Amino acid sequence: MCCTLKKSKLILLFFVFLILSFKSLQAQEGNHELGGWYGYFFDSDFGESNFGIMADVQQRSFNVTNDFQQLILRAGLSYKIPNSSLRAVAGYSYFNSGTFGPSNSQTFENRLYQDLIWSSTFFDGRIALLHRIRIEERFIENQDIRTRYRYFLNAKFPLNKKQMGPKTFFAWAAGEVFVNGQQQIGNGQTVSLYDRTWLFTGVGYQIKSGLRAELAYMREVTNAQTKGQLIVSLFHTF
After folding, report:
1. Which residues form the signal peptide (predicted)?
2. CA 21 to CA 187: how far, in whole Å?
3. Is the pLDDT of residue 89 over 90?
4. How confident is the model at residue 30 (pLDDT cuts 50, 70, 90)?
């Protein structure tokens, strides 16, 4: 009974989180240019050990098909904590970022990051929640070293089966909040404490064990504006 109550509270917190984020979205100026983000995410264990690797490659555009926005290369060493759903990750990521519009100028960023990831299920496994806390140390051109803190929450719900498994269609919703660790970032530059929020809604298909595809719409909310993104992703575990 106690465990059920705790799970119900987590679901309630998830929906409160989404409602508050949508309220902040309504206060921002909208950007009607739809972006396109395309990614391949994979993870693999090292034999029978608790260690493994998690990595992704992403290509992002300011609109669906062109106007280069960002190339992301990321990889981390993971460790599954015994007798729990917890996984810790430490890694490195490389970012090459373009500029909106006709300019060809680019900036480069290197990051170190640490993740703590855990999962849970509700209603006899019909709803699956994934949580991730991420800390980033950011090395950006012409800026001081920066830190950023992120919390991600994802909920999946199978559509044609009672539980997730091979050949399962599913719906999902997620949100992620970003908070900056510093406001003074060097050379007289400043940023706000609140960085941005990502809000996702989408569908997916579990092709087989360890392989799924997802299609989603994401709304990015910053202090300056909101912008929509088309998200196409392939997730591979082997």
Report:
1. 1-27
2. 32
3. yes
4. low
**Mean per-residue pLDDT of the chain:** 88
Q: Rg of the chain over CA atoms, in angstroms?
A: 19
List pLDDT tens digits, range 150-195: 999 999 999 999 888 999 999 999 999 999 999 999 888 999 999 9
Residue 100 in contact with residue 74, Cβ under 8 Å?
A: no
Domain 2-237 class, CATH top level: mainly beta
Please count the helices (runs of H) and the strands (runs of E) in the chain. 1, 13
Question: Is 16 strand, coil or helix?
Answer: helix
CB-based contacts of 187: which residues, under 8 Å, 6+ apart? 142, 143
Which residues lie below 8 Å from residue 24, measured CB to CB, with a gap of 6+?
Answer: 197, 221
CB-CB contact of 87 with 118 (8 Å): yes
Q: Where are the chain's structural domains? A: 2-237
SS3 state of residue 13 = helix
Q: Residue 169 is encoded by which pair of tokens?
A: 């269609």
Predicted TM-score (pTM) of the model is 0.86
CA-CA distance, 169 to 237, in Å (whole number)? Answer: 18
- Sign of CA pseudo-dihedral 8, 217, 102, 107: positive
pLDDT in tens, 104-117: 788 999 999 999 99
